[in-house]
Design goal:
alpha/beta; 7-stranded mixed sheet; 5-stranded parallel sheet; 16% strand; elongated
């Protein structure tokens, strides 16, 4: 039986860029793509979620790694304003709460106000640090304070002088001891009475002195209380004087600030409270308490009192909504934290040590994170859900929550949260979240499902060319000429394993362009040409093909047995794909079938020794069922068949060898030899119809390479399912060989066609309760019937 093989022009779809006008000779003349190439579904999902302001419309972007999900979403967000009417943005600052220091006060300011306000306060403090001491270091202040001191001293002296005179008149002396206490002593003339002289006095005179001294002591205690009141009054007057002096200085500097920020109520209220606090804590500026002043100035950035700093947590440089990508989503990085500082062995914290997280910076905009990284970090997922539900950002100490310790910490005012979260992850992670976390579906109501590939049409090729142009422009690469663009599109189609599809695995395209750009620059080229693309692809393959070269060498030195010429009964060349982490390639495998007297069983040796996977075992069962339908219509097949992959030691899975295995069994049954020049790949169903398989390009190329090693001749070729014909994007050397008639590829729809091609005989159709006697199936049927007799 003769069957036409596929023509060379059907084995590779060349890109002609019909959708691109002739004058566009390179990416230099091609506008970069603003949209997400081939991801209309995902783009619509992102647009929908961004346009809804209600709680819960966050996005989970599904797609395998390398599709460029993040790059595509960022490109869309940067070139479009999904904020529409614009969510109002604010600068967020923490300042001291002078009434309750444990709960720092939050200031919500207009965008761009926070940093200027912080600098204005710093300037104010620097001026006050210099101006306040000067205000208390002048003759006017000294004169007023000295006057108050003199008034106090005069009152003290008058009161004590009167008491001294009264005591003197009654022969009693008022003296001041070395310990600073006042003492009343009876006088003996001009000298104080000693203990002996006092005892020597008459008893009545002693009693008189005691009565006088007791009365004077009562008066002295009254004067002492009065002195204390005068001193307190003096302190109040001094304090009032200090406040009056300080108020003149402080108000002189604060008044312009209040005028400058008259439209900001929160700032004006804070300035008022700050002014009052400065007047109550003048010692910080006057350096009256050295230790206290040292601690208050123990700032990490500025030489100014800590309590008057402005901690700008978030500063909006522009009014465009923020887009934040969090690469390391740990708890502190997302939710912020409160630092501790150490000064002379003392550990302390305050509002100025509050640090922002990515949620603070993304507030009013979008925060993008990797789902797996979020789930891997302790407490992050629960904290994120809590923030999204409450729509508030509470800065609580993670250490306090985890350790349940009673450590004193700050409790800053919570910040209102209005943010869209976009999580990037694969489908498995998405399924786990949906299944195990009931909150997930409520908080992430929008799924952006990214495609792996897109239809290949003239229009999509033009889009892809613009996508290539965007990568070139964004990375400052050399521009690609028209043929280089076409070759990259053909490579994308090969990656998609379909002539009619283009791969959307943008990481592969970006990597190829980087390597091609390097190759072109190394050759001192002014533009990327098709030769540079080919060279970069060869280098890519060279780097990852060590295992392939080793395994091909086993065919070269005869370690792996294979026949690529001649005819053998019960032996066929199947094709398989070997995959590593970054490369996959095809190789032929010798499959053999032997028969012996039995009851129609097909013994799968791979399965028996547990080297065969479940899919492979299913394929063997299917071909067994088809075999029974061919030869067991009226009686049991009197043979047992043993089927194996020769020299296979690492396990076999997949059903792509089931057609090859059936052909080997038919050959063993009939005694018709199989042409070893032809390899075959393909799955089959219970009716013998050929079913598509994966890796068809690699399998054909692998067999072609082995044929080249073992010796080429023009009868060699590969049989594939017809449904795989559109997957062919073969190497140029194979296309050339096919074009010359040195290599053949046959596409079949039924296993009977493979039997005919492999044996050179008609497979045979069931007619009148029999197969034609000259056909392969007829020969096998006759042998089986003879055995039955």
């Amino acid at each position: 039986m003769t069957m036409k093989s596929l023509q060379a022009d059907t084995l590779y779809r060349t890109c002609t860029l019909n959708g691109l006008d002739a004058e566009f000779s390179s990416t230099k003349h091609l506008a970069p793509l603003n949209e997400i190439v081939g991801q209309e579904r995902a783009q619509q999902a992102v647009e929908f979620a961004m346009s809804i302001k209600e709680k819960g419309y966050n996005i989970y972007a599904i797609g395998r790694n390398g599709l460029g999900k993040r790059t595509m979403v960022l490109r869309y967000l940067n070139r479009h304003d999904p904020n529409g009417d614009a969510t109002p943005l604010y600068d967020w600052c923490y300042v001291a709460n002078f009434e309750e220091t444990r709960t720092p006060k939050l200031l919500k300011l207009k965008p761009g106000t926070g940093m200027p306000f912080k600098k204005d306060i710093e300037k104010l403090m620097l001026r006050l640090v210099k101006a306040l001491p000067l205000a208390f270091d002048n003759e006017m202040y000294y004169s007023r304070s000295e006057q108050l001191k003199n008034q106090l001293a005069e009152k003290q002296q008058t009161a004590l002088g009167n008491l001294t005179e009264q005591a003197k008149e009654q022969k009693v002396s008022l003296t001041l001891t070395t310990q600073g206490d006042y003492q009343l002593i009876a006088m003996n003339g001009e000298e104080p009475h000693t203990e002996e002289s006092f005892i020597a006095l008459p008893e009545k005179e002693q009693e008189k002195f005691e009565t006088i001294i007791t009365a004077l002591e009562v008066k002295l205690r009254g004067i002492a209380r009065q002195l204390t009141d005068w001193e307190e009054e003096f302190s109040d007057k001094i304090q009032k004087l200090n406040e009056e002096v300080a108020l003149e200085v402080v108000s002189h500097f604060v008044k312009p600030l209040k005028k400058q920020y008259r439209g900001h109520t929160e700032i004006k209220d804070y300035l008022t409270a700050m002014q009052k606090d400065i007047l109550e804590n003048l010692d910080i500026f006057l350096e009256e308490s050295e230790d206290q002043v040292a601690l208050s100035y123990a700032a990490l950035d500025k030489k100014m009192p800590r309590r008057y700093q402005v901690n700008v947590l978030v500063s909006q440089e522009t009014e465009r909504f923020p887009i934040v990508v969090e690469e390391s989503p740990n708890y502190h990085a997302i939710f912020g934290y409160i630092e501790n500082a150490t000064y002379k062995g003392t550990v302390f914290t305050d509002f100025s040590l509050i640090r922002s997280g990515s949620l603070h910076r993304a507030n009013g905009g979008v925060l993008l994170m990797d789902a797996v990284k979020v789930l891997e970090r302790p407490y992050v997922w629960d904290g994120l859900k809590r923030a999204l539900r409450s729509r508030k950002l509470n800065l609580s100490s993670l250490e306090r929550e985890v350790t349940l310790s009673g450590t004193i910490s700050l409790e800053p005012e919570p910040i209102p949260l209005d943010v869209k979260i976009i999580l990037f992850g694969d489908y498995q992670t998405y399924q786990l979240l949906v299944h195990y976390d009931p909150d997930f579906s409520e908080l992430f109501r929008v799924t952006a499902d990214f495609e792996d590939e897109m239809e290949r049409t003239d229009e999509s090729e033009l889009q892809y060319a613009r996508f290539i142009s965007s990568i070139v422009h964004d990375n400052g690469m050399l521009h690609c000429d028209r043929k280089a663009i076409a070759r990259i599109i053909e490579y994308s189609s090969r990656q998609a394993e379909d002539q009619n599809k283009l791969s959307l695995h943008s990481a592969d395209i970006a990597n190829l362009l980087r390597e091609t750009n390097y190759t072109a620059r190394a050759a001192n080229a002014n533009m990327i040409r098709v030769a540079h693309v080919e060279q970069a692809l060869l280098r890519q393959e060279k780097r990852v093909s060590r295992l392939q070269d080793q395994m091909l060498h086993t065919f070269r030195n005869g370690t792996t047995l294979i026949d690529t010429q001649g005819d053998v009964i019960g032996q066929i060349n199947g094709l398989s794909v070997v995959s590593t982490s970054d490369h996959r390639f095809g190789l032929p495998n010798r499959i053999t079938a032997t028969t012996s007297w039995g009851e129609g069983e097909v013994m799968d040796i791979e399965r028996s020794v547990k080297l065969g996977g479940r899919i492979h075992s299913k394929g063997v069962m299917i071909l067994t069922a088809y075999l029974s339908s061919l030869f067991g219509k009226s009686a049991r097949i009197p043979l047992t068949t043993h089927l194996t992959f020769e020299q296979s030691y690492g396990g076999v899975d997949g059903d792509s060898a089931s057609m090859a295995e059936l052909c080997a069994i038919i050959s063993a049954f009939s005694g018709c030899p199989i042409n070893q020049s032809i390899a075959i790949t393909g799955s089959m169903n219970q009716f013998g119809q050929a079913q598509p398989i994966g890796g068809v390009n690699e399998k054909i190329e692998g067999y072609f390479d082995v044929c080249t090693i073992k010796g080429r001749h023009n009868n060699q070729g590969v049989i594939i399912p017809l449904s795989n014909a559109h997957n062919l994007m073969l190497r140029k050397d194979i296309l050339t060989a096919v074009e010359k008639g040195d290599f053949h590829i046959w596409a079949i729809s039924h296993v009977s066609e493979a039997i005919s091609l492999l044996t050179g005989k008609d497979a045979g159709d069931w007619q009148d309760d029999n197969y034609p006697p000259e056909s392969v199936l007829g020969i096998a049927q006759n042998k089986l019937n003879a055995m039955r007799k």
